[in-house]
């Protein structure tokens, strides 16, 4: 679908004109302009190119001088766990399995007000840093905790961010050989029923959609084979995407071999979990055959470099995945394993971590890192036709980064300044053509209020856990 399909959509729209900025379109040709313009009409990108905007435009409600700035597509987050915002800084020196064992008893105590405030804080942190399309994988549903998915949807709607909510699930508790406490998991039937209800109630498949739902059982070690198989069938019956964790640690590899007699990728394929409608988080421990299987099936990857480093999981083979044609985007991951909670810092971390090792200085470059965080993420979420690059007809999700300040002014290449320099301030961020950030501050919520309320919920959770 493109602008030609709806020729009258922007004819009478209000326009925002941005001029004098560098532009990295992240289109198929990596087109860039050292000084150019962007015209937004309604919620669409109407035109862009070198030099000033066309003269005589009607309905211009705002003109922005982008001198000293770089315009890029909005960042797209492909993996997160919002609820973890209120458990940051815990289990600081653990690997994944020990970290999960340490934290699941706490996470099993969350409730609706906690999830709402954690979601607001997680979203606020990302949006303030240039994210225009967020994603969350929520899979902890303690009994009697309230409407946890609804809390996230409410928070995303209030902050004005485009959102993919992956309705997660776990049905393998401690008594069945899993890691989470039994009272924090659902039955297979309840998980499938609640997931289908979420899709029916909230998924919007339209071009302009601000909210989509994915089907997302948690991981091979917290989900039964039946739930995996039935969830895949459910997603395909409903025409929505599938998401889970995969190949994150060596322990997971060992677990799959011991339980299923095969590695994670072969196990996922045996349960219907490879395909163009699937993306998996992490994918650190993959051999050549695994990468070939992902490439052959079009299965996507959410690369989470900071979380992988925090939990000592390893380094994903991102250059090899890209070379094979695997769709790859970036993920913040939960803030109990990436306390910064920001995606724009993952651009730099992805580049640096993937260069670790001898003679790897060209393993990943600045423009590839930017593509991972924009078009790559849109492709992983199945939204590359609407977002992820700056092209006429696409939705107006874009960010104007300030690069003429102390941290960036001596880096002549604006893309290198954004990726390699310190976190760049966001002067303007548009989602669906509407401003959500101005001069580094949220327009859709009070940051101080969010910080205070999230702190209060974190303290309440800590008290509940301490009281047993």
TrEMBL record:
Ranges for domain Amidohydrolase-related: 71-418
Enzyme class label: hydrolase
Lineage start: Bacteria, Bacillati, Actinomycetota, Actinomycetes, Kitasatosporales
PANTHER family: AMIDOHYDROLASE-RELATED DOMAIN-CONTAINING PROTEIN (PTHR43794:SF11), AMINOHYDROLASE SSNA-RELATED (PTHR43794)
Domain of life: Bacteria
Coiled-coil regions listed: none
Keyword Hydrolase: yes
Keyword Kinase on entry: no
Protein name, per record: 8-oxoguanine deaminase
EC number: 3.5.4.32
GO molecular function terms listed in the Swiss-Prot or TrEMBL record: 8-oxoguanine deaminase activity
Keywords: Hydrolase
Pfam family, one: Amidohydro_1
The species this protein was found in: Streptomyces milbemycinicus
């Amino acid at each position: 679908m493109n602008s030609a399909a709806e020729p009258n959509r922007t004819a009478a729209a209000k326009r925002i004109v941005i001029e004098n900025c560098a532009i990295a379109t992240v289109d198929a040709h990596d087109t860039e302009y050292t000084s150019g313009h962007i015209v937004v009409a309604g919620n669409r990108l109407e035109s862009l190119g070198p030099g000033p905007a066309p003269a005589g435009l009607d309905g211009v409600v705002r003109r922005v001088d982008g001198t000293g700035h770089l315009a890029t597509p909005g960042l797209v987050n492909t993996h997160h766990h919002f609820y973890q915002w209120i458990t940051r800084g815990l289990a600081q020196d653990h690997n994944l399995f020990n970290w999960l064992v340490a934290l699941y008893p706490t996470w099993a105590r969350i409730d609706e007000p906690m999830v709402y405030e954690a979601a607001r804080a997680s979203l606020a942190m990302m949006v303030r840093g240039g994210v225009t399309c967020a994603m969350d994988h929520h899979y902890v549903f303690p009994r009697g905790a309230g409407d946890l998915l609804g809390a996230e949807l409410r928070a995303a709607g209030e902050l004005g961010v485009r959102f993919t909510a992956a309705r997660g699930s776990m049905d393998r508790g401690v008594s069945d050989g899993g890691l989470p406490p039994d009272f924090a998991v659902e039955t297979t039937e309840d998980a499938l029923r609640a997931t289908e209800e979420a899709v029916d109630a909230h998924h919007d498949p339209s071009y302009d959609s601000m909210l989509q739902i994915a089907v997302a059982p948690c991981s091979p070690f917290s989900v039964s084979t039946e739930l995996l198989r039935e969830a895949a069938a459910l997603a395909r019956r409903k025409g929505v995407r599938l998401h889970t964790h995969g190949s994150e640690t060596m322990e997971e590899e060992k677990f799959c071999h011991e339980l299923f007699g095969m590695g994670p990728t072969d196990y996922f394929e045996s349960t219907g979990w490879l395909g163009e409608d699937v993306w998996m988080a992490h994918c650190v421990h993959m051999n050549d055959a695994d990468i070939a299987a992902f490439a052959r099936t079009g299965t996507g990857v959410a690369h989470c470099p900071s979380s992988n480093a925090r939990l000592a999981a390893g380094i994903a083979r991102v250059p090899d995945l890209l070379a094979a044609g695997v769709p790859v985007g970036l993920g913040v991951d939960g803030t109990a394993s990436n306390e910064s909670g920001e995606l724009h810092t993952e651009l730099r971390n992805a580049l640096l971590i993937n260069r670790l090792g001898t003679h790897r200085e060209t393993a990943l470059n600045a423009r590839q890192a930017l593509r991972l965080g924009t078009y790559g993420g849109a492709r992983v979420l199945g939204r590359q036709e609407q977002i992820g690059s700056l092209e006429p007809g696409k939705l107006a999700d874009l960010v104007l980064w300030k690069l003429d300040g102390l941290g960036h002014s001596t880096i002549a290449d604006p893309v290198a300044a954004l990726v390699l320099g310190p976190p760049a301030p966001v002067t303007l961020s548009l989602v669906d053509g509407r401003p959500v950030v101005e001069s580094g501050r949220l327009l859709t919520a009070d940051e101080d209020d969010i910080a205070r309320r999230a702190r209060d919920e974190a303290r309440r959770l800590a008290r509940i856990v301490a009281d047993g």
